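Data availability (excerpt). The following record was deposited with the supplementary files.
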Amino acid sequence: MNLISRAQPQPQPQAQPAAAELMDLDYHLFNEGTHTRIYEKLGAHLGLRDGTPGTHFAVWAPNAGYVSVVGDFNGWNQGATPLSHGQGGVWSRFVPGVGHGSVYKYHVVSRDGSYRFDKADPYAFYGEMPPQTGSVVWDLEYAWQDQEWMKARAQRDPIVSPLSIYEVHLGSWMRVPEDGFRSLSYREIAPKLVEHVRRLGFTHVELMPVMDHPFFGSWGYQVTGYFAPSARYGSPQDLMYLIDTLHQNGIGVILDWVPAHFPKDGFSLNYFDGTHLYEHADPRQGEHPDWGTVIYNYGRHEVRSFLTSSAMFWLDRYHADGLRVDGVSSMLYLDYGRKHGEWLPNQYGGRENLEAIEFLRHLNGVVHHQHPDVLTIAEESTAWPRVTGPTHLGGLGFSLKWDMGWMHDTLHFLQNDPVHRKFHHHQLTFRRVYAYHERFVLPLSHDEVVYGKGSLLSRMPGDVWQKFANLRLLFAYMFAIPGRPLLFMGGELGQWREWNHDSSIDWHLLGEPLHQGAQRLVEQLNRAQRESPALYALDFDPDGFDWIDASDNEQTTLSFLRFAPDRSDTVAALFNFTPIPRHNFRIGVPADGFWEELVNTDAREFGGSGQGNLGGVRATPVGSHGKRFSLNVTLPPLGALFLRHNPLRTGR
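Predicted structure:
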């Protein structure tokens, strides 16, 4: 049993002045569904009782006939340490002598005695290393050093600040070949991840779920420990150290969080007290047909308190800067993944899950009220209205939403041979129809490089050079259009093979020039975003965008303008989706002066052919595309240009 990350010093546990106990207000709020920090009372809490150190255990099991705590401190004796059944269906007891690191479970017996099972603590702060499933008494004391980051975060509006996201699966980002190709621990990965992300220039890291999950192959999306980080990579303090280190280096942390479903493992939440406590009893509501999991009963008040408190826990105790909420679509629709007759309509006969909708609104309201400087991001793949709209206007209240439509349309377009792309031009321009209906993240995520889809690079058409040119074009397009870019690890390397969670990404590829060039371009695009307010400040405002030419399907080019507030910064973005260079290519621009070449994806440093405009172009008073001035440029083959207006610079 490896409870501690390899050879890492752990803080000495500090006993609390008194053992945590539930007060009348706690019971009231918990049973009402409005408790936002019930994790402070339920679970295992170190403390004192009459001067004696020990642990206070409390678990919600309203339909049980008997509950005891079993563990390494009582020989796992089911009758040695019974809990008392109290108010609100909570069983509790203070057990002297039980300290930090003790392993335990709850032995739960149904009222009729037909169901007996040892259950992990739903509120445990830590768990054993899989495949072991015990909960661990743990002190979360940690000396944070990220005060400067947290202070700056409180003063920053994330909606109008630069934001680019690097998505990471900790278990397969980098491995240790000298030690059986094991995954890095939280502490081992911290300096390496910081160095890589700082060099690339991403503002945030998004961690695929680090919450405790028994099956590694679920990538963390089948969570059993909603208050416990995975022991695979170390202790709670080790994860805090990773987040702390990222913060000290100016990098935000978004955590994937999964309130849509949970696995059926017998030791976990499923059928917890001999009844369907956390999940729906009717399989037409409680069984997830696609994932083989069970679905939360969002109408049960105590379940709402459980999930809301879990979200708050990662923000409160782990200083997370945002939560990306997985599987929102599956929560919103009662018929999600179901055939006719396999689902139950709501009280009005519709397919909307009214209880889940109300829960999500409540959750976002709580999070944004208590942590107004953090993000909540919805993975929502349908046209559900106002996902990022305010709750008082009928919205769900999320900060951002993944734009799955953009991802699908763009990848489908680019997978076409360039000679055929002119027939699919609408896949690039259609997004303008809905671009400002929500505040969008543009995700090139892990889901796009698994299950036989291949890597981003391998899906591009043409020879090797053209594949890399198309990949660079894809990255530039993602950074140029309104929305916040997200790239899954390995994409920046130009990885050939699709992602495999059982191995590292292919770091050795950086020894080859074309792969180096892809990474350099990602660095340059992130730098361009940070330095150019036009590329982020009005991402969610139509005043920040104007087409130059959206209809050049014959040449398969696209061009548009991005603006900062008050037009203090302007960038023209030009794209050539064919391998034919466009010389003497004229585009209209709104201002005279010099337009410097901020990004050229065909530059030799990125692996391109080196065609471009020698650093920039001066506008001439020749009208074009409805603009007073114009630029005569060389638009490289399978290339993108970002031209930034610089009226103070002289040039050709």
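Summary of structural features: The CA atoms of residues 279 and 296 lie 4 Å apart.
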